[in-house]
Records
---
Amino acid sequence: IYAKLFSAGPTQFARTAGMRLPNGEYDVAGATEFLHRLDQLYPGINRYAREIERTALQNLASSGEAFIRSPRTNRKYVADRNKLYPLLNHSIQGEAGEILKLKIVQMDAAGLGPYMTLPVHDEINLDVPNEDVKDVLHTLRNTLNDGTLLSVPLTWSVATGHRWGSLTEV
């Protein structure tokens, strides 16, 4: 989907997705069909991308700089010269990072601060004594899962274990 969001055509999409025909050539027809079906199933993707571009172009016309702002924090994301498509990534990744930080603050306010050890990309690692795991899991679910923050429910998965490489989703 990222290839689509970054305006990849069917050939680039097939290459990125590893879509090949039995003879080894890229399956451009299959990629075209997939992209068409994606547009039908999720028309909001194109609407969102066009809205980002429209906003950036309006800002370029009024201020001389193509940019968008985060709806959550008002942070300004500026486009590289003649490249508006990265603004879509800034919007998606930037908001995801903002939400992660917001949830970290909410976890601390819910009393989980002493257990939090490290945020890693889109994860929050905690070190919890065995006797507290059940209560912490309950608090995590109540804090992280959120039906009001976005237009779709925000859900998080939780995994436990003694080592990062051997976690079990709960």
---
Amino acid sequence: MNKHLPHSVYLIHGWAANGRIFDGLRPLLPETWRVHTPDLPGHGNAPSDGTFDIMAAADTLAAEMPDNSDIVGWSLGGLVALYIAIRHPHKVRRLCLTSSFAKFLATTDYPQGLNRSALDKMIALFEQDYPKYMRQFLQLQLLNTPDGEEIIASVLPDMVKNGAPAALKAALDALSLADARPFLRQIRQPVLLVYGGKDSITPPRMGEYLEQHLPFAELQIIEKAAHAPFLSHAAEFSGLLKRFFG
């Protein structure tokens, strides 16, 4: 990569959230990085036609990215990031997947997945009172974080100001059906996998599977983190990114 060009880093959020979830992480990243926090279709400020297509979301993001960008993908955002690397490899220099997966639900040949998703019941709650239940979700992720309430106070107001994402159900359906396993061997970029030891939504075994099947991957587990290590352990997470992205 030309060292005189700004270093573009894309932070891709997960299901039911939007780019503002990264507001606490951004100040900890180097000022020389050009950081982008796009909203996925039907989330945050992004328009929605009522559908959600992971590959289309990957193609749309890739179209606006400079070549040799670095990507952080969280949860569903990690799946989108995987498809960017698979479909547009020249766009991706390095990839960090945090609390993400190649496939979400378990099958006989994939016991690493979840037998059932607890997220389905969240749809009605988010639609009923998005600020209240997003706060509860974040509180669960920050249980072991001393300044958890301060972190929530700093990110929640901007995160929930647009109301519940329009693509809640469509995105969860797409997430539940997606299966990137057949393509993992194609990804030649270095991949950093960061998981929370206390994550019940995407347990570390999902990261172990990715580490085994991606050609150039390293796994880091933050033992006391849950599903949002970049929020609960932002200093540690940003340190990993700085080392990995350089």
---
Amino acid sequence: MQHVEHPDRPDRKHDAEAFAEELNSLARELRETSGEADLRHLRRMARWGRACTAVGYATAWMGPNPLSVVALSTGRMARWTMVAHHVGHRGYDKIGGPTGTDFAEGWRRWVEWPDWLVPAAWKHEHNKMHHYRLNESADPDLVEENLGWLREHPMPLAAKLVIVAFFACTWKFTYYAPSTLASLRAEEDPAGSEGGFIWAFDPRTKTGRELWTSSYLPYVLGHFVAIPGAFGALLGPWAAASVAANSAMAEVLTNLHTFAVIVSNHAGDDLYRFETRYRGKPEFYLRQVLGSANFRTGGDLNDFLHGYLNYQVEHH
């Protein structure tokens, strides 16, 4: 990443302000034209995701197979990236859709978004810390910063690639679940030692116990015990083992899939790194463009497979 002190330096300040006004004008226009069509699109993408999950489980009992793995993986990806993510950003609050403050809270979590992440922790870490500290050292999702220890370690390159591959296959529960929860608890108690990322894994700490009881145990018991057990009760032990195996392989694949579509939008030698806080909306808007990247956009199928995160600049 490149380093910039202030992207609104005098020779660019006028352009930044003009750019901000264009964006504000576009935002007003989009708000005026938003409505039922946007809700229908959200529901369609949600149905596609649910359909993938249904196909996955409908075929998972037959034996380990790629169709079930891909379908289950895609369903989990869609629920996070296209429903929880966009609703959590409160994108549908003002047009009669699901509200970001209520989505997946309380018992509704297990119906609307039964994932590794605690919804309140995700909304805090992603919506507040990541977006408003984009590519600063305080950005909890700054890949350059988070992997600095690995780049600087003298271990062979092959070993480093193995470590990256491990995190790519597991990052929802080895990185995102503990990182988001630690970020939320650190906000609530800045002086406390239990807000740190490492402490989040330790079941002897309050944050660690919450991570295990709110994330790890419910997800593992639900996806790898209860659901396979239900198939087993109806169809026998082979069905239960097959569902568990397909679900485990889907977990690896959905981690790889989301890692590919999310990390690639935030890492690259043409993206900027910022050393200071932004000053005013013009600089804030400019940083979102300089600090993130789009991939090919257009077409529901292409965008669905990207989790609609190929519009990363617009998203930021």
---
Amino acid sequence: MTLVVSHALAHGFREGVKVSLAPLITDFPVIFLSMYILKQVANTDHFLSAISFAGSVFLFYLAWESFRTGNFDIEASYKAPKSLRTGVLVNVLNPNPYLFWFTVGSPILLKGYGQSAACAASFLGASYVCLVGTKCSIALMAGQSRHFLRGNAYICTMRLLGVLLLIFAAMFFRNALYYLSVDGLVS
């Protein structure tokens, strides 16, 4: 969500929406992977630890970029934002979709599919309408407010978002250590 807001503020509503759409690209492989792995492997702590650690490193990088943000002139500045690519990378390195699909989503999906394909499809559809719809709404609000945020207000907002990214990076790092400790590798 922080990435949605920062891209909408820096590059406009459309770029925030591109970040919002990333789960539509990244989650379906996760869904299939989780369903396959749930049937094959009972212990996924090493996998979740690696994903959490990689996500932590990437979030630290994004936080660093937010802190380096200088004054921003909306009309004069243009840097190719690569929002969809960044959103996809963040989602791939975020352990939360994996955790959701491994622990909650796939079991519900499998149970729904056991009743009917329409039941499973409605679960997926409703989930993504809510997820992507909420993110797009937030991108719209942030994109509309970007003209009010100039000079120091913009810099402060980007640095606040950087702090939030640092907090999330620390949480992901803590989760990586937790998953290792579950396996007894870290005491």
